[in-house]
Amino acid sequence: MDINKLLAGRTKLMRASEIRELLKWVTEDVISFGGGMPDPSSFPINEIIEVTRDVLTTKGDKALQYGATGGVPELKEELMRFMNKGGIGTLGDHDVIITVGSQEALDLLGRVLIDPGDYIITESPTYLAAIQAFRIYEPRIVGVPMDGEGIIIEELERRIREIREGGGRIKFIYVIPTGQNPTGITMSMERRKALLEVASEYDLLVIEDDPYGYIYFGNDSQPSRLKAMDSEGRVIYMSTFSKIAAPGLRLGWVYATKEIIRWLELAKQSVDLHTSTLNQYIAAELLRRGVIERNIPRIKEIYRTKRDLMLQALSEYMQDGVTWTKPSAGMFIWLSLPDHADTSKLLEIAIKKYRVAYVPGRSFYPNGERGNDMRLNFTYPKPQEIFEGVRRLSLAISEYLREIKP
Amino acid sequence: MDINKLLAGRTKLMRASEIRELLKWVTEDVISFGGGMPDPSSFPINEIIEVTRDVLTTKGDKALQYGATGGVPELKEELMRFMNKGGIGTLGDHDVIITVGSQEALDLLGRVLIDPGDYIITESPTYLAAIQAFRIYEPRIVGVPMDGEGIIIEELERRIREIREGGGRIKFIYVIPTGQNPTGITMSMERRKALLEVASEYDLLVIEDDPYGYIYFGNDSQPSRLKAMDSEGRVIYMSTFSKIAAPGLRLGWVYATKEIIRWLELAKQSVDLHTSTLNQYIAAELLRRGVIERNIPRIKEIYRTKRDLMLQALSEYMQDGVTWTKPSAGMFIWLSLPDHADTSKLLEIAIKKYRVAYVPGRSFYPNGERGNDMRLNFTYPKPQEIFEGVRRLSLAISEYLREIKP
Asked: Which of these, A299, A369, B272, B372, could form a disulfide with A42 (CB 3.0-4.6 Å)?
């Protein structure tokens, strides 16, 4: 039978992620900077084996049974304690919901907040999968340019005023303040304060996506989380176990006012009833025993070393006219070619001839504004691959730039 | 800040499940027939401990890492083999997607197929959480009455014709043919054939939700799955590990044409990227080692024994004018009071005075048509609780019926 005539309108808004499509091209001999995976050597695997056995032995009945939609209470409590070290997690009118990775948190927030035609504001570029999650709910996405210190506040204000003057409803500002995906930029303390002031002035919700905040590896001191400075309950904080423990557990969480959490729970109930009970008990026990905290310095060290390697390779091999960021957190370096370049076109040469892959930048821009950037992941490839991959990438760029020379 | 003014329109369609709300009332001394949980003694816990250790030891790197949106290939292959024993799983143009329980499958199907105002057809009554999952996408839900053999085909046809004559678009027919939730009714073989003929005649998709098909405990032979008789690719088959292994793993799956699976994958990508890799590897290994198959006769025995106990207690204690189903599969008995009764009102007496709980029937009807039924779960309560609970329920019913006597 013909399924196409039965598809919903929104289904036509679903697009295969360029990252995921790209993975299909990548064979064994291609060095890939394309993914966003942590180094598997950072997983505390022996401790996970031990903890999992203990959880199943001592509370298997509960760990294998249905659970509450909001999450396993033990995990929620441990998370409050854990967030506390990041300066948050202690507000009495706040609560936590456990989600299937932070991706589900993005979907639930879109589901609960966005009506077709509503405005949402993001950094530009921003996290591709956040754009995809929100887009299904048919908002107008307005991207605000960034510089080395993060979102540019004057530009943000200008856009808010424009939208308001046009009668538009703004549902939230979505930002990744620390080690932003894809740029690797960490928003400065000054900008963070200014962002909250603007949010307060215009009475706006802020979603703070913080996957990398617990593994900040910069030498300077880490700026406060927005949530730690939020005295008005307008910041919805979200993070994930994917970078501090392991992505395969598919565990994320949201910390916000009880009212917001209650709506997210109600939404989640019809999406998947609840997140895996077993995995939640494992995570609670990893936190309780201090496994995650003890492992964090090790992860930071792995990330810092690999970032340094990639920066070194870039300064060794990259030609004039190519620039890149120097991240203090996160998993990515953002590399920019001259304005007339198109990294989507370069990709074919890079993969097919030079056997190196990355993610072209355009799809990280909510409205596809720029095409001359690329995202490079430094956490997954092996050290020798980082060096060799950057060398190959430079050769591919040279060939491509020669080809398109005006 | 005021969150209410920022909520999306669809958020107002989200309602707390009566089942979940009910659980909050139920204290230690209340015997609850309200949940839908399997007997924890049916979990193959020692084998799960062993398998989990082996999975983490031999492929921890993969089991803890990100995975493909469609699912872990090993699990998909094992599932094809497993479904084979149910007469399906071998079609070359078909594929499997692994979901977060079957609840996520329901949400993804709604997301991909339903536009506001579309018609969908269900049995009436039907699974409460399916209604909730679909309702978010704003369909018109048409419920078709059932008798002891399942959905009444003449009524189904009449409604299809009515909708079509009114210019309505029907997106699918959703049925739970075996051990239906909430009624416990298993659709007869004749009705199954007739249902497929109707679907073919009117060119309609059929969603076959089959959580209980692998643990059929009737004495008569089990009718074929709809999918096993589907020569036109119009049946979307879905099932879950929640009843054959453990709900805490949150694993379900859909088996359908590759085209449908591809759309579901695209939808799932923005919902949660993928289902827990760890849990998928555990399930694959439980299947590969035959743990699940060896455990199934034991689950059937537990369910059959408890069903018999509840039926015995019902015939011992229940007054005239009360009727109930005698299920060959599933987890529920459907009990009906005289037409003028309202089991939502009875519930307060039952819980507060007689310390026994159930789920009132009205919310299982897509349009709330009837209020005099209730759903009783027999798989979770202990044997002595089943007897004592039915006794209490009968007392509560007597008191309530006396009260409302005309």
From this structure: A299
